[in-house]
Specification:
The complex is a heterodimer of chains A (about 140) and B (about 60). Chain A is built from three helices and seven strands. By secondary structure, chain A is of the alpha+beta class. In chain A, the strands form two sheets. A five-stranded antiparallel β-sheet of chain A has the order 1-5-4-3-2. In chain A, strands 6-7 form a two-stranded antiparallel sheet. In chain A, helix 1 crosses helix 3. Chain A starts with a strand and ends with a strand. Chain B has one domain. Chain B is built from two helices and three strands; from the N terminus they run ββαβα. In chain B, strands 1-2-3 form a three-stranded mixed β-sheet, covered by helices on one side. Chain B is globular, with a radius of gyration of 14 Å. The chains are: A alpha+beta (about 140), B alpha+beta (about 60). At the A-B interface, helix 3, strand 6 and strand 7 of A face strand 1 and helix 1 of B. Strand 7 of chain A pairs antiparallel with strand 1 of chain B.
């Protein structure tokens, strides 16, 4: 049985988190009261989360991945050791943070009345960067 | 008149920076603040024209005193 580990994130907005997960191909389950995570054998684990990517969407031997909202309103990622080892690691969380920030930026710009002009993905030695351009009246 | 544009760049760790073009003086800071106050932007770069305009305003203020 692979042990779950909690990792801090900077994500705090449920809507942006859900949209970010959807944007990279997952269908997250949302449970305001928190729901149990399941291991790869279908065994219910004591860990609970508010936003969950069920294991069937991950690798064949994966466990569920959860995001638990802590007392401060910030999400903590709950990922098993196994899943961290096969790529659901800090870099994966970073890509979720990137998608989250993109949605947050679009929402803030829209609220300010800025006009969206385009999105560009730029390859850099540090990885892909997303550029969002807006016109200000 | 030069168009005012804002470019937000987001890296694979979720860190973001803002680049402003076509702004002069205080307007530049206002737009940067709009994104910084909502945690969208973690870093900002201010272009030379911002300093030129700000310096110009300061010297004008000094002259009128």
């Amino acid at each position: 049985m692979s042990k779950f580990q909690e990792m801090r994130t900077v994500l705090s907005h449920e809507g942006y988190l859900i949209e970010a997960l959807k944007g990279i191909g997952y269908t997250p389950e949302v449970c305001a009261e928190g729901s149990a995570l399941f291991g790869y054998m279908g065994d219910e684990r004591p860990e609970r989360a508010h936003v969950i990517v069920r294991r069937r969407q991950l690798d064949s031997a994966s466990n569920d991945i959860g995001f638990r909202r802590d007392e401060g309103g910030v999400y903590r990622a709950i990922i098993s050791e196994y899943d961290r080892g096969i790529g659901f690691d800090d870099a994966w969380l970073g890509r979720i943070a990137q998608a989250y920030k993109e949605r947050q930026t679009m929402a803030v710009a829209k609220a300010k009345g800025y006009v969206f002009q385009g999105r560009q993905v730029v390859e850099t030695p540090q990885g892909k960067k997303v550029q969002l351009r807006f016109a200000v009246r | 008149m030069k168009q005012k544009t804002v470019t937000i760049e987001i890296d694979e760790q979720g860190n973001s920076s803002i680049d402003l073009a076509g702004f002069q003086g205080k307007g530049c800071g206002d737009v940067a603040n709009a994104f910084q106050s909502t945690d969208v932007v973690t870093k900002s770069r201010t272009k030379r024209e911002f300093y030129v305009e700000t310096a110009g305003q300061q010297s004008q203020q000094q002259r009128t005193q």
